Fold this protein.
Amino acid sequence: MLDQTVKPLVRVRDLKMHFPIHAGLLRRRVGEVKAVDGVSFDVMEGETLGLVGESGCGKSTCGRALLRLYDITSGDITIDGHNIATMSQNKLRPLRPTMQMVFQDPQASLNPRMTVEAIIREPLDEHTSLSAEEKRDKVAALMDAVGLNRKFAKRYPHAFSGGQRQRIGIARALALNPKFIVCDEPIAALDVSIQAQVVNLLEDLQEQFGLTYLFISHDLSMVRHIATRVAVMYLGKIAELAPREALYRDPLHPYTKALLSAVPEPDPDLARSTERVILKGDVPSPSNPPKGCNFCTRCPAVMDICKQIDPEYRQVQPGRFVACHLFNETTTTAG
């Protein structure tokens, strides 16, 4: 259970990230892709918030916008007491050590022309005034921390396996002693046998360095293992946010129910008794979302109001947030 006295390290309010669509000879703006469309959540100090949803729902864009790797459309982002939503990149630079990212594809995110030592040392070159010897010691300590043999410091990324490359990326993210790390599907590109090792490493490092994670993934069983709370995203919006056990035990939003029913159950007896929710149709385009609730075109419990009015995202039980007319209607009737 999350300690209520812990204060949020990260506060996100009504975050929007819309990408313009240009067409025609004069490249006029004809619309926009609403990749992230009004997202609000907190990440408490020392916790892991899992962000889940199917491919294309805006999870990775949300993570990158959160660290201002994009200039956001609107909203507020407060990290460690600093509102970084509208800061220029120059002003952001001194705050960069506080927030780091572990990318999805370890091969694409590491420079193939740099040695492991140079890759891990680069943040130290950019942001610190340590001597060459201090940097060498720091790189060696980081390699030890992530389980890499320091003898391999002069090797290039191609000489390592996928799991080892991801460890290099994690060591680079840790170089500046950050408080907050966005893990953007850090295990998606790895073999199943390696995934557990990387997740266990992230948990060990969190305990050792007091880190706070936003863990983005579509692997619900892995999120259940690592996350403190879970936010479920659908078509640029958060459908539900709840403590981990409460969400997996009793999902409120119809989309969360459908997602969880698709998680494989190893126990054959339980698997037979679990009702599978099959969603019909495809995810609508983020450039042309449906009127009303984003999920109304596929929802098995759709009502008339869902097709007209976007449901309010609000707290319906202590620590549980949901955006669904079905649940809001019940609470209104009950009240």
